[in-house]
Amino acid sequence: EKGQSLKGKHFIVTSGGTREPIDPVRYISNASSGKQGTAIAQSLLNRGAKVSFIYGASDVPPPAGVDAIAIGSAQDMYDAVHRALPADGAIFCAAVADWRPKQAGAEKIKKKHDGTTPSIEMVLNPDILKSVAELDQTKRPALVVGFAAETENLVEHARAKRQRKGCDWLLANDVSPETGTFGGDQNKITFFASDQPEDWPKMSKSGVAEKLADAISKHFGDA
Ligand code: PMT
């Protein structure tokens, strides 16, 4: 029965966009709406799972029934994810900023009146997905699922990303502006459970979530 197939299982789901402060009133972020991550959390809940939903900036509220943890920056998301462990599975749908401004000013950066502009030095953020995929067997969730947001050479880039990050499954989506993947209601996934890509048809984000939750239920032996 769908309603109970993941009962007793704990999942971490990341969703939305991170915000990397420049100063107290400015940040660097991205166009993630949180719709895909929210739909995945809902589909896992529908199967009886307990869900720790760790989310950044989003256009939609977290689903009722999750343990909802709101975060700001990538470092906040990293800390929240590691605090939410242990888990049976972890799904990394958030659009995490790869870099952050090296120094977030304590005061608002003043506009100069001589025509000069500030330059922002960036440093690398921790890779949350990779840090979880690399945990030793006693701490690593049994199933670690990543996403790949690509604008070109999707299959090659996604295959390499799955290897590099050490995740079990990877859902690659084309996020070129004309696709409307960021922020829209539909998604087109190329799914990797191995090096072999499996093309899913274009469908609603809740359709993608259901298909993923079905595969997860099957993986845990209860479908
Ligand atoms: O939110 P929506 O508007 O519904 O759009 C959904 C989506 C396009 C944001 C989503 O489907 C998606 O592709 N999410 C991943 C976005 C992303 O950051 O992709 P990436 O290729 O840069 O990262 C690869 C993976 O590593 C992702 O699972 C990401 O969550 C994770 N990551 C990346 C960087 C980082 N520092 N830590 C991470 O955990």
Task: Describe this structure as you would to a colleague.
- This is Coenzyme A biosynthesis bifunctional protein CoaBC.
- Its EC number is 4.1.1.36, 6.3.2.5.
- The protein is an alpha/beta fold.
- Helix 1 crosses helix 5.
- The protein has one domain (2-102, 121-219): Rossmann fold, CATH 3.40.50.10300.
- The chain starts with 9 loop residues before the first strand and ends with a helix.
- It is 25% helix and 26% strand.
- It is built from five helices and 14 strands.
- The strands form four sheets. It has an eight-stranded mixed beta sheet, sandwiched between helices. A two-stranded antiparallel sheet has the order 2-3.
- Ligand PMT binds next to helix 1, helix 3 and strand 9.
The number of helical runs is 5
Beta-strand percent range: 25-35%
| CATH architecture descriptor name | 3-Layer(aba) Sandwich
Biggest pleated sheet: 8 strands, mixed
User: Quick check: average pLDDT?
Assistant: 96
Might you state the CATH topology name? Answer: Rossmann fold
**What is the ordering of alpha helices and beta strands?**
EEEHEEHEEEHEHEEEEEH
Q: Which parts are unreliable, with pLDDT below 50 for 5 consecutive residues or more?
A: none
Total count of strands = 14
Spatial shape: globular
Strands side by side in the biggest sheet: 5-4-1-6-9-10-12-13
Oligomer class: single chain
Overall structural domain count = 1
- Which hetero ligands occur in this complex? ligand PMT
CATH superfamily: CoaB-like
- Spatial gap, N to C terminus: 7 Å
CATH class: Alpha Beta
| Portion in helices | 25-40%
